[in-house]
Every structure is written in C-alpha cells, then in structure tokens.
Amino acid sequence: MRRRTFLAGAAGVSASVLAGCLGSGAPGDHDVGMAANAFEPPTYEATVGETVVWGNNGSRSHSVTAYEGGIPEAAEYFASGGFESERAARDGYWNGEGVVYAGETYEHTFDVPGEYQYFCVPHERAGMVGRIVVTE
Ligand SMILES: [Cu+2]
Fold first, then answer.
1. Predicted confidence (pLDDT) per residue in 54-85, tens digit
2. How many angstroms does the Cα of residue 12 sit away from the middle of ligand 1?
3. 23: CA distance to ligand 1 center in Å?
4. Rounded to the nearest whole angstrom, what is the distance from the C-alpha of residue 34 to the centroid of ligand 1?
5. Distance 89 CA to ligand 1 centre (A)
6. How big, in percent rounded to 5, are the helix, strand and coil portions of the chain?
7. 4 C-alpha to ligand 1 centroid (Å)
8. What would the pLDDT profile of 106-115 be if each residue is shown by its tens digit?
9. N or C: more exposed end of the chain, with fewer CB within 10 A?
10. In angstroms, what is the span from residue 53 Cα to ligand 1's centroid?
C-alpha cells in the first residue's frame, strides 16, 4: 500500500491502471510484489471491484494460487493460469501452467468482500503465502 502510493504519486498515474494496460509491465507497476519467497506486502487491502496486480519483481518463478477453503463462499476460485480448483493449479504448475515468470504480472478483480488466502505453489513450504482483504 505504502509503496503503491509512492509509485502512483511518482508516476502521476495509478499504478493499477498502468499495469492493466501493459499486461506485463515494468517491475514497479504492481500492488503486490513477488520476490525472495514472499509476497510483499503479505496482506493487501482492497475494495470491492478493485483489480489487484501481482508483479514478479524477483528472479524466480512464482504463482498466485488461492486456497480453495480460504476464500469467501460466494467468491469464484482464482489462480494464475486460470485454474478452477486448487488441485488443478497445484498440478498444472509443474507442467508449466500458471507460472508467473520474472518480470510478469498477474491480476485478479475482487467482486466479493471478505478475506482471501493464497500461496505460491513452488514456495508454499518456504512460507510464501499472502492475504487479500476486500472491503465494501
Ligand atoms: Cu514463489
């Protein structure tokens, strides 16, 4: 949040809007960074309808994968790669699907308020987990 505010101010344009246009933009154009086995910030607060952009600003490959049991009941499952279940996302990653490579971004729009817990498939055991808290 703090970093985004700084970047948005520095660029004179919303970081989210910019990333949305570029698809895989410059490393700074994201809300949540992915590097060094961590999502930064680990908890990100968004409002309903907001599109959150993850950016891989490190050198390793990562994923953004929701915990099926860790999202609001009314919410749609989400994961980089567009998988419809956590199982499919976990399996798919090792086949090269849903990988967010260095310099790439992934984005998801949150339409249902609540808490969303997610992780990175290859670095889950290293503690690479995150949380999006969506409020009205
Ligand atoms: Cu990772």
1. 999 999 999 999 999 999 999 999 999 999 99
2. 30
3. 20
4. 7
5. 14
6. 25, 30, 45
7. 21
8. 999 999 999 9
9. C
10. 15
Length of the chain: 136
Q: Which domains does the chain have, with CATH numbers?
A: 2-135 (2.60.40.420)
Q: Give Cα 11 to chain centroid, integer Å.
A: 21
Q: Which two tokens stand for residue 23?
A: 């698809």
Identify any residues that bridge with 135 across adjacent strands, giving them in sequence order. 47
Judged by DSSP in three states, 11 sits in helix
What separation in Å is there between the alpha carbon of 123 and the centre of ligand 1?
4
Relative orientation angle of helices 15-22 and 2-11, to the nearest 10 degrees = 80
And the tokens for 41?
Answer: 């910030």
Enumerate the β-bridge partners of residue 129.
Answer: 119
Tell me the Cα Rg of the chain.
Answer: 14
Name the average pLDDT for the chain.
Answer: 86
